[in-house]
Specification:
214 residues; alpha/beta; Methyltransferase, Methionine Synthase (B12-binding Domains), Chain A, domain 1; Rossmann fold; 2 domains; five-stranded parallel sheet; 58% helix
Length: 214
């Protein structure tokens, strides 16, 4: 079945083959939503599970992320035409002073794979840049820091969100090599993502909880 081939090819990171298979699926009359949910999202779920259990490592994740990015480039315009609302909107960035982007980019891909719209504010992002990206449609602000010297800027970003009056409207996720659950708790974050796969699952849980609380 072509969806199984998409799922398997995504894990290998073969960009040309994934594009070819998606084209075949769409030409056969399959909806973009089905290709996304049963092919791509299912494939990234497998990748995330394998990463968390140590079956694959960051280089494999990067290959899968590259293929996922290419696939989303094909599907996004079609999904937009269908009028489907995203699972949620996330502002994502690496905090001030930190120029590392591999982890952030992996999180972005995993979030998009779950159907989220990601507003990427980039690396070395000032607290004000996070604040400026938040509007009434954003549910989550996700911050990454690899260095212990830059991790404190996560707390400063939360403080900036509070001063701007938007902190109460969003959930804060923190992650990266310099971050632990204890640190995330100490700065007032709502959730700690140990890796990209965990971050995507946390985002789903946070949005689901917010909807149930309404």
């Amino acid at each position: 079945m072509i969806l199984n081939r998409i799922l398997e090819t995504l894990q290998t990171g073969d960009v040309k083959q994934i594009a070819k298979l998606i084209g075949q699926a769409l030409d056969s009359g399959m909806t973009p939503e089905k290709v996304l949910s049963q092919g791509l999202i299912a494939g990234m779920d497998v990748v995330g599970q394998k990463f968390q259990t140590g079956e694959i490592y960051i280089p494999h994740m990067l290959l899968a992320a590259r293929a996922m990015h290419a696939a989303l480039g094909i599907l996004k315009p079609l999904l937009a035409e269908s009028g489907n609302a995203p699972a949620g909107r996330v502002v994502l960035g690496t905090v001030q002073g930190d120029h590392h982007d591999i982890g952030k980019n992996l999180v972005s891909t995993m979030l998009e794979g779950k159907g989220f719209e990601v507003i990427d504010v980039g690396i070395d992002a000032l607290p004000e840049k996070f604040v400026a990206a938040v509007d009434e449609t954003v549910q989550i602000v996700a911050m990454s820091a690899l260095l212990s010297t830059t991790a404190p800027f996560m707390g400063k970003t939360i403080e900036a969100l509070e001063r701007a009056g938007v902190r109460k409207h969003v959930r804060i996720m923190a992650g990266g090599g310099a971050v632990t659950q204890a640190f995330a708790d100490s700065i007032g974050a709502d959730a700690y993502g140990a890796d990209a796969a965990a971050a995507a699952l946390l985002a789903m849980a946070l949005v689901s909880h917010a909807k149930e609380s309404r």
